[in-house]
């Protein structure tokens, strides 16, 4: 419980509102772990949180959302802040998947997949992961298959999030099929 609550708070800080925590974030989304700890300590709830708690939070999480390297921490994906988080382009696998709500389909057919309130479109490496993502929006989500490599070969950019999540910009519907 503590870990998932902490994970939500850290995600909020690193993805959506670093200024509320007075964090200095670089263009790749990294902030000093000590800065984050100082900010958390100002909240009674997190006053005893230490680096080891952040490490445990990351290790026990159901999804790989954050990483700590050389005294810095960042979110792998999910950003909505105005400053664009820079990601390295990377060739995607042949196919990727996206789980979404039935009510969004018509708009997606007309405009392709759009980042909406986030900086990137989020894609999953398999149908099961996409299904779980889609379930957040609809109890009977639809699964879209993205011909990612074909899109990449036609200059659609892809970026790696974590082992299960890929990121992209706008994906035209010509590269998308409805799986179920
Ligand atoms: C939809 C979670 C209308 C899109 C998950 C999605 C993921 C459109 C919604 C990560 C559209 C945005 C991101 C269009 C896309 N018209 N709707 N043209 N194009 N959409 O939550 O991908 O647990 O911002 O299909 O696991 O659902 O937070 O994105 O349904 O990895 O770590 O607009 O967040 O991870 O919804 O989820 P979201 P998402 P965490």
Helix and strand string, N-terminal first? HEHHEEEHEHEHEEE
Number of helices: 6
Q: Given the helix and strand composition, which structural class is it? A: alpha+beta
The amount of beta strand, in percent, is 15-25%
Biggest sheet strand order reads 1-3-2
The 3D shape can be described as elongated
User: Largest sheet at a glance?
Assistant: 3 strands, antiparallel
Write down the oligomeric state.
single chain
Radius of gyration over all CA atoms, rounded: 17 Å
Bound molecules: ligand HQG
End-to-end CA span: 34 Å
Poorly predicted residue ranges: none
Helical fraction: 25-40%
Describe what this molecule looks like in 3D:
By secondary structure, the chain is of the alpha+beta class. 31% of the residues lie in helices and 19% in strands. The chain has helices at residues 2-16, 33-41, 51-60, 105-111, 127-135, 148-153, and strands at residues 31-32, 66-69, 72-75, 96-100, 121-124, 142-146, 158-160, 165-168, 176-178. The strands form 3 sheets. The protein has a 3-stranded antiparallel β-sheet. Strand 7 (158-160) and strand 8 (165-168) form a beta hairpin. The longest helix has 15 residues, at 2-16. It starts with a helix and ends with a strand. The site of ligand HQG has 19 residues, from helix 4.
Q: How would you concisely characterize the structure shown here?
A:
This protein has 180 residues and is α+β, with helices and mostly antiparallel strands.
């Amino acid at each position: 419980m503590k870990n998932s609550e902490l994970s939500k708070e850290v995600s909020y800080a690193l993805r959506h509102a670093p200024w509320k925590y007075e964090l200095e974030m670089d263009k790749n989304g990294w902030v000093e772990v000590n800065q984050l700890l100082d900010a958390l300590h100002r909240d009674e709830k997190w006053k005893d949180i230490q680096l080891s708690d952040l490490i445990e939070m990351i290790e026990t999480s159901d999804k790989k959302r954050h990483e700590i390297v050389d005294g810095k921490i960042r979110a792998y994906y999910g950003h909505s802040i105005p400053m664009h988080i820079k990601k390295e382009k990377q060739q995607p696998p042949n196919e990727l998947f996206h789980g979404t709500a039935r009510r969004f389909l018509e708009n997606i057919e007309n405009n392709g997949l759009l980042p909406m309130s986030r900086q990137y479109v989020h894609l999953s490496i398999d149908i099961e992961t996409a299904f779980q993502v889609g379930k957040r929006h609809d109890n009977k989500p639809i699964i879209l298959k993205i011909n990612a490599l074909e899109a990449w070969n036609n200059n659609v950019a892809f970026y790696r999030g974590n082992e299960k999540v890929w990121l992209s910009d706008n994906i035209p519907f010509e590269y998308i099929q409805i799986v179920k």
